[in-house]
Amino acid sequence: MVSRVLGFGTVILPVLSVLCALAVADDPKPTPENTIHIELSEPVKPQTFARTLKFFVTDVTDRSGNAQPMMVYKPRKGVFLDRTPAEITREGLTKCLESASTLAADRESADFLLTVYIFRFGLSDSSGMDFFGKVEFAVVVKNAKTGKSQQVSAAGTSIAGVAILKKNLQKNVQDDINKAFGDALRNLLRGEKLRDAITALDVPPDAKAPEGTAPPASEKPVGATTGEEPVKNS
């Protein structure tokens, strides 16, 4: 009986190895022909606040759990981003802040520090007849002086029809993600959530932080997506 089981294992293991190798070989690879560039057509100008504020983007982290974050579409030899979602998001957010002269030169000169966590960047599930672009992230907004922080979530969506020709398909995917990305940044920078967070966290420029005030223990985002503890406001 043991020898029969061992014999079965001897046969099945090579078969599994071949199947795994074929699956890996079938995965599309990025090439100049199937790579798209995501960039805002024009920056989203942030809303104004009670006083002039400077922001600095400290870090952008991909928390999507996607093993291939640059592959946004797998069928038909795939469609790939030319940069990681984190790089695209940092560049886009930075340009938006620059457009309103609210980007700090460094963290020391900033009123607020922004730490971004990306949960989704690309295409969402579709019916097969349309592409649904979706970008979703959370931003921890931290007062550089007091160390207090709040989380602001934002998302953007877009829809485009599926194309028959590959070049049209790639253009639709590119336009779809571009629109979803711009929508997410618009919801962040011009939304009430950011205004409410800044209003709650801002202090007069001449105010001093109380002695012994420590920064929050964590700047990680809230949400079932990450399974982590909420950010606590100090």
> Counting H and I runs of at least 4 residues, what is the number of helices?
4
Q: What portion of residues belong to β-strands?
A: 15-25%
- Write out the strand line-up for the largest beta sheet, numbering strands in chain order: 2-5-6-7
Q: Please identify which CATH superfamily we are dealing with.
A: ABC-type transport auxiliary lipoprotein component
- What's the CATH first level? Alpha Beta
What descriptors fit this protein?
single chain; alpha/beta; Rossmann fold; four-stranded mixed sheet; 4 helices; elongated; disordered C terminus
Kindly describe this structure:
Strands 2-5-6-7 form a four-stranded mixed β-sheet. It has a three-stranded mixed β-sheet with strand order 1-4-3, with helices on one face. It has four helices and seven strands; from the N terminus they run H-E-E-E-E-H-E-E-E-H-H. The C terminus is likely disordered. With 234 residues, it is α/β, with parallel strands linked by helices. The longest helix has 25 residues. Strand 5 and strand 6 form a beta hairpin.
Topology summary:
Layout: H1 2-26, E1 35-36, E2 55-62, E3 71-73, E4 79-81, H2 85-99, E5 112-124, E6 130-143, E7 149-161, H3 166-189, H4 192-201
Parallel strand pairs: 1-4, 2-5
Antiparallel strand pairs: 3-4, 5-6, 6-7
What's a concise summary of this model?
By secondary structure, the chain is an alpha/beta fold. 32% of the residues lie in helices and 24% in strands.
